[in-house]
Amino acid sequence: MWSSSLFSGTAIVCALSFFSSVQAQSIPGATLFSGNGAPGAGPYQLVDDYESAVFFDKFNFYSSYDPTYGHVQYVTAAVAEQNGFVTTPNSTAVISVDTTNQWPNGGPGRPAVRLISDNTYTHGLFILDLVHMPWGCGTWPAYWLLGPNWPFNGEIDIIEGVNTGESDSVSMHTNPGCEVDGAGQTGSFQTANCDKDANGNSGCGTLLSNTTIPNNYGDGLNRNGGGVYATEWTSDYVKTWFFPRGGIPASITSGAPNVSTFGTPAVNAQSGGGYTCDI
């Protein structure tokens, strides 16, 4: 099964956050490719492969407090492995939580896993093949890129949603001075201002409507056997595509992704058209 991949350089870390959930998340892997730095550069060269056998070796297990104050305890790698919160069956990487015990309000939160990549990246093509994700009350799955000294070096949220939502929210968060245009995309553009202090810290975001981009999140994604998220990050834009299972481009499944065949992106956060941002 195709693994997640990264195609890039240095500066932003990849983070996977799985809050108190009653469902597991299966990730065949992740992959990173790098081009020549120009928009739409290609062909991309594979620089990092997060296939299941080494998936958890490439991440740091964040085990400090939750900065968003959720009812959760992030655990170490040792605790996660001992309790079966991280496993690699059938060429997939599975991240789950404690589904055995009750964790009432007022006490410790539910043990869960939050991963931060050891490697850092600047620009590239990031591909995630997702089989299953947390969904339901009390869940907050996230797949995101985060720069140091937040928000000055930015945050790119590729997958994020809560509870029983049906649509993924893709957004960026920065310091003041970054606004993007969302022209040329199939997702519903929400806000242009990426400043964390504007719009209640919603960032500059796009909603992937379940009507126009079916089964991109939650229960719909799970019932459909998952899908692939591909994000191309250049100095001019951040584009994200979602491909449902059964509709994944052949260039991705063959290991030689060609963004020119991906079609119109779900998200096209770009500098230009009266908007400026140091992407």
Question: What order do the helices and strands come in, and which of them pair?
Answer:
Blueprint (H helix, E strand, L loop, with lengths): L4 E4 L3 E7 L6 E3 L1 E6 L10 E5 L9 E3 L10 E3 L2 H6 L3 E2 L5 E3 L14 E12 L2 E7 L10 E6 L8 E6 L7 E6 L14 E2 L14 E5 L9 H6 L3 E7 L3 E8 L5 H4 L13 E4 L9
Parallel strand pairs: 7-10
Antiparallel strand pairs: 1-5, 1-11, 2-10, 2-12, 3-9, 4-5, 4-11, 6-10, 8-9, 11-17, 12-13, 13-14, 14-16, 15-16, 17-18, 18-19
Protein model, in words:
By secondary structure, this protein is mostly beta strands. It is built from 3 helices and 19 strands. Strands 2, 6, 7, 10, 12, 13, 14, 15 and 16 form a 9-stranded mixed beta sheet that branches. Strands 1, 4, 5, 11, 17, 18 and 19 form a 7-stranded antiparallel beta sheet that branches. β17 and β18 form a beta hairpin. The longest helix has 6 residues. The protein starts with a strand and ends in a 9-residue tail after the last strand.
